[in-house]
Design brief:
Length: 429
């Protein structure tokens, strides 16, 4: 799988020692976490992690690491970090974000505070469509600088892998420009970026009378161009009222499949949509999951598709939260993501999302961490490299100034992330 990361950096050896709690997320079972396994964190106390050349090479107790013969011979070349009194976990994998926009949607925010609904704001010309003009007018370089700033804010809160969508240009030229802006930003960011084409976000005004013509542009122009130029790793579609119908969305999926791009979808945010016809495309994830039929929950639980929950949007829009407990009990593999975007979830903070998951969706802190790390990696099909701390995987770690992992979700509106290691490089936050 091709992902973007900053290249050609010299990576030195890094040894984290005296870690109060190391959450390895290691599992003896293959596949994403489901049911009771979601709460298994693989905790090692008073632990150490050795990273070399961008990879994790050893995990264990601090006393064992300091006695290691290789370490004793090479101690002077190793950057040693004392993590006494800290919790270290895999860097968060934020599997659903929309970072390419020109500015915040403050009018929408004000109208919502006055009582207007999501649908009413969209019908009045706000919502997703209100971001189009800014993206279409903006220079690619300006967009990339904003995207890079968003990536850095996410890293400040412990995120080291990000899925980044286009979706606010809604023309072939502007969607491709948005993906190019993501690539430019990714080249300057040491973490890992997974770019996604979301040309099928909503129908732009110029196609309002003929939405199928816009779907044709997505399928016959945007997707082939993004695939040919290797600008996107996934194709996404917003299938819901006010966006695209089930039939239109399946056309987008079919076009993506034709051009060798895997798919994911915004599903069931505002209304229920039958999921089973989409499962034949083996989507990586269905995201939002606010309104679901029982038969679809059962089908989702039997599939390898991740159900990604984005409670930041529910919080900001004032919508009811997804029934995480029902999904987990049914065996659905759930992930958590920020849904970072200017209209419905303007937050870069995965710890805040963990807090919402615990307080509003009644997930345990352990379940929330699994959903935001290893299951997020499965949602991006990166679990062979990301989401857990074990030898051979990418050296992506986040250290928090707390002594118990439950504090990460307990404290909200405060950032306790001390540093991250991303692809073997240290970054103080």
């Amino acid at each position: 799988m091709k992902t973007y990361r900053a290249a050609n950096r010299d990576r030195e050896s890094i040894l984290l020692i005296n870690i109060a709690q190391l959450l390895t997320l290691r599992s003896s079972q293959p596949g994403p976490r489901r049911g009771g396994d979601l709460a298994e964190l693989g905790i090692i106390e008073d632990s150490a992690v050795l990273c070399q050349a961008g990879k994790i090479v050893a995990v264990g107790k601090t006393r064992e690491a300091l006695r290691d013969k290789w370490y004793r011979r090479n101690q002077k070349t190793v950057q040693e970090i004392d993590c006494r009194g800290m919790v270290v976990l895999p860097g968060f994998v934020d599997s659903h974000t929309h970072p390419v926009f020109a500015g915040p949607r403050l009018v929408d925010f004000e109208k919502r505070a006055a009582g207007a609904s999501y649908q009413e704001i969209a019908a009045a010309g706000g919502g997703i469509r209100s971001s189009i003009a800014g993206v279409r007018k903006a220079a690619k370089r300006d967009l990339s600088e904003r995207v890079l700033a968003a990536f850095n804010e996410m890293a400040d809160h412990g995120t080291t892998t990000i899925e980044a969508k286009s979706g606010y240009g809604l023309s072939t030229a502007s969607e491709i420009k948005s993906l190019e802006a993501i690539r430019l930003a990714a080249e300057q960011w040491p973490g890992t970026i997974v770019p996604t084409l979301l040309g099928a976000h909503v129908v732009p005004d110029e196609f309002k009378a003929n939405p199928d013509d816009y779907v044709r542009e997505v399928c016959e122009k945007m997707i082939p161009t993004a695939a040919r130029r290797k600008l996107a790793q996934f194709v996404d579609v917003f299938c819901d009222v006010g966006a695209f119908t089930s039939q239109q969305s399946r056309r987008v999926f079919a076009a993506a499949e034709q051009h060798g791009l895997p798919v994911r979808a915004h599903m069931c945010q505002l209304s229920a949509t039958e999921l089973q016809p989409f499962l034949k495309f083996a989507p990586a994830s269905f995201d939002h999951m606010d309104h679901l039929h029982s038969a679809d929950i059962a089908a989702l639980a039997e599939s390898n598709t991740i159900g990604s929950l984005v409670p930041g949007a529910n919080y900001f829009l004032g919508h009811p939260f997804p029934d995480a407990r029902k999904l987990i009990s049914a065996g659905v593999a759930v992930a958590l993501a920020t849904d970072y975007n200017p209209g419905s979830s303007p937050t870069p903070s995965m710890p805040f999302i963990l807090s919402l998951a615990c307080t509003q969706m009644k997930m345990s802190p352990a379940e929330a961490i699994s959903a935001a790390t290893i299951n997020g990696a499965y949602a991006l099909r990166l679990a062979d490299r990301k989401g857990s701390i074990e030898p051979g995987k990418d050296a992506d770690l986040a250290a928090f100034r707390v002594t118990d992992f439950r504090e990460i979700a307990y404290w909200f509106a405060v950032n306790h992330c001390d540093f991250v290691v991303w692809n073997g490089e240290l970054r103080q936050t």
